[in-house]
Design goal:
Layout: H1 3-12, H2 15-33, H3 37-41, H4 53-70, H5 72-76, H6 86-106, H7 110-135, H8 140-162, H9 171-196, H10 217-237, H11 241-266, H12 271-293, H13 298-306, H14 318-335, H15 349-355
């Protein structure tokens, strides 16, 4: 083996490079193996992609959690200076991310883990990114990080609601609407930035410029920006919101395949390339999770909320339930034989034939 081959092999199997790749592949196999078959089969058309939302969320979380152990020194520098025990928080967040990835990939306790994950991303925004933006208000990348983790937080909350299978009432409905508003705002702002800065990587407009070898860079930027902006506006005004979130997730997945996968193949040892790949995949998973949490028929939802067919919040009212219970009991009573009824005992055929003979006299 040549010297360059030995160097490449040792680099590939160094801890900082090997473990993020290993965890990504591992969570990918776990998530794909445990996708409930009925969820996939009952989807139609592009909505089949919604079943992949947990996989697209679990894979990046597992890799990011692994990063907190193999890159603990560099990640500790990003912990706010006023917080004590920087390494403790690095390891704590790493454990939390891996635990959330396991829960989501294995489809166990998803409502709890996704809710806590959304809260953690929200704390990132509140405690880290907003102070940085306040310190450097002219830095557009500081705003991009605020919007990115806000999107991830809202997507995790949407996943916790989508896991229940139906659009729920009350507080759940409000949480989904808040997630829709936050994610729509982020998508619209990111869409505008694609027209202002078309030479940077698409979907998440961060510091990485587009590679020079990528063809039709302006086309990629403008098409991606248009999809982001239109989908974001549709989510904000709540028109075709489920379709908009689905298209947004599929478009982000297409960018992962068209842009970030070749970039990762060209630079497999660059962890920044892997992180961009995983960030955009997580963006796709969050958008698809929101689509799964939104109602399929918005007009039916509005009718239910107005109480035209059901009670408050779309659930059957007390009077409806009492009426249905009474009807079921009445139908069941009609099918049952009355308690005072009786039937004649069966007799033999000879006795019946004699009873039918007018000339027959009993002995």
């Amino acid at each position: 083996m040549s010297l360059s081959g030995l160097i490449l092999s040792s680099a590939l199997f160094s801890a900082k490079v090997f473990w993020p790749y290993f965890s990504s592949v591992g969570f990918l196999f776990i998530g794909l193996a445990l996708i409930p078959g009925n969820k996939w089969l009952r989807r139609r058309g592009i909505e089949k992609a919604l079943a992949l939302a947990p996989v697209f969320i679990a894979v990046p979380l597992g890799a990011f959690g692994t990063d907190h152990f193999v890159e603990h020194t560099s990640i500790a520098k990003g912990v706010p200076s006023w917080m004590p025990a920087h390494l403790f928080w690095v390891y704590f967040v790493g454990v939390a991310l891996i635990a959330a990835a396991l829960s989501i990939a294995a489809n166990k306790y998803v409502k709890l883990s996704a809710t806590l994950l959304g809260l953690m991303f929200f704390l990132f925004v509140l405690l880290k990114h907003i102070p940085t933006l306040a310190t450097h208000p002219q830095n557009r990348f500081a705003l991009a990080y605020v919007l990115r983790d806000s999107f991830f937080s809202a997507g995790a909350i949407a996943l916790s609601r989508a896991h229940r299978g139906d659009f729920e009432a009350g507080s759940s409905q409000r949480l989904v609407n808040i997630s829709r508003f936050v994610m729509g705002t982020v998508a619209a702002v990111y869409g505008v930035e694609h027209f202002l800065y078309p030479h940077f990587v698409p979907v998440l407009p961060l510091e990485q410029p587009l590679p020079s070898w990528l063809p039709m860079q302006l086309v990629v930027a403008y098409v991606t920006g248009s999809i982001l902006f239109i989908s974001g506006v549709s989510l904000l005004v709540n028109r075709k919101a489920r379709l908009a979130a689905t298209v947004l997730g599929i478009a982000a997945l297409a960018v992962v395949i068209i842009v970030y996968l070749p970039l990762l193949v060209a630079r497999p040892l660059d962890l920044d390339a892997l992180n961009y790949f995983l960030d955009t995949l997580l963006f796709s998973g969050c958008a698809l999770a929101l689509a799964g949490a939104l109602p399929k028929d918005e007009q039916a939802l509005l009718s239910a909320a107005a109480g035209l067919q059901h009670g408050r919040h779309g659930w059957p009212s007390t009077a409806d339930r009492a009426s249905r219970t009474s009807k079921r009991k009445w139908s069941s009573a009609r099918r049952r034989r009355p308690s005072g009824s009786f039937s004649l005992p069966r007799t033999d055929a000879g006795f019946e034939s004699k009873c039918g003979d007018e000339n027959w006299q009993p002995q």
